[in-house]
Design a protein that fits this description.
mainly alpha; Arc Repressor Mutant, subunit A; Tetracycline Repressor, domain 2; 13 helices; flat; Regulatory protein, tetR family; DNA-binding transcription factor activity
């Protein structure tokens, strides 16, 4: 019978540790990295890492991800299985956040959380009913990481600037957060409501009716979320392809050269030629600031003359 792929990947990692290629304290390969290296799904790679965590060969290190616990014959003692009384919902959420922040939301699983905590696979279900419920708890926890001053800055624009930058900072810290769902299916999260109230109170001074107030808030929130979506997508692209942004662009040069040379898109061609000669890096933080300023300029023209 053919050995399951996740066991083969786990065996290869053990070999690398035994050979000294991965020393104690070294960061283990990421789930995405393993998936790209072995040509498997991220879930398979996560299962391989989970096996080694349960064995004590790897362990979770706060803010560092999964690291090597020891060399040949040196293992950390795994946490006893089945002792779910030691678990709390907060511990489960924190472990899940570490996985999602380092590996992406697609990699997150209840089994992976259990492995990170060193408990039996079914133990987290005593505190959280499903992955979907866990994601909701994670999102609410993240939105609660940042709040607002009791005394707001003067002027609607200053308040919206602070609100936009606060949300952006959360998406920056937790790139998966922008992937949760469309704005027409908002999550009823108490901590997300804090950010909504801040933005709505800034717009409310214009005396808008409820529908327009809602529409403008959706526009504002969608702008921040829409830029932030690319944070996680870039991580996914890097993990699935193994190519950096520069490497990927280099691979596109023949196709781009054909478009530029066709003569059908003169402005596009001029822009690409100039950027190539002068050097250019797409920085999402700059794009966010440009978009926020432009959006608020437009709102000022629309609302202040009412």
């Amino acid at each position: 019978m053919t050995e399951p792929r996740y066991l083969a990947i786990a065996a290869e990692l053990r070999r690398r540790i035994s050979a000294g290629e991965l020393v104690p304290g070294a960061k283990a390969p990421s789930t995405r990295g393993l998936a790209a290296e072995h040509g498997v799904a991220t879930a398979t790679a996560a299962k391989a890492l989970g096996v080694l965590v349960q064995e004590g060969v790897l362990h979770a290190e706060p803010r560092s991800g999964t690291v090597v616990a020891g060399g040949p014959g040196v293992k950390r003692k795994p946490a006893p299985r089945g002792r779910s009384e030691e678990l709390t919902r907060g511990r489960i959420v924190r472990a899940a956040l570490e996985i999602a922040d380092h590996e992406g939301l697609a990699v997150l699983s209840m089994r992976g959380v259990a492995a990170r905590l060193g408990v039996a696979p079914m133990s987290p279900y005593r505190h959280v009913a499903s992955k979907d419920e866990l994601v909701v708890l994670m999102a609410d926890a993240v939105y609660g990481e940042r709040g607002y001053p009791a005394q707001p800055p003067s002027g609607w624009r200053s308040r919206l600037e602070l609100g936009g930058r606060t949300l952006w900072s959360l998406y920056r810290r937790h790139p998966w957060l922008a992937q949760l769902g469309p704005v027409n299916r908002p999550l009823p999260l108490p901590n997300l409501a804090v950010h909504a109230e801040w933005a709505l109170s800034a717009l409310d001074e214009f005396g808008l009716d409820a529908a327009e107030l809602c529409d403008l808030h959706v526009l504002f929130f969608s702008f921040v979320q829409g830029i932030a979506v690319h944070l996680e997508r870039e991580q996914q692209a890097l993990g699935s392809s193994g190519l950096s942004e520069d490497d990927w662009m280099a691979n596109q040069e023949p196709a781009l050269a054909a478009i530029v040379g066709s003569g059908r898109h003169p402005v596009f061609a001029r822009m690409l030629t100039t950027l190539s000669a002068e050097g250019y890096d797409l920085v999402l933080d700059k794009v966010f600031e440009l978009g926020l300023c432009s959006l608020l300029d437009g709102l000022a023209l629309r609302l202040e003359g009412r």
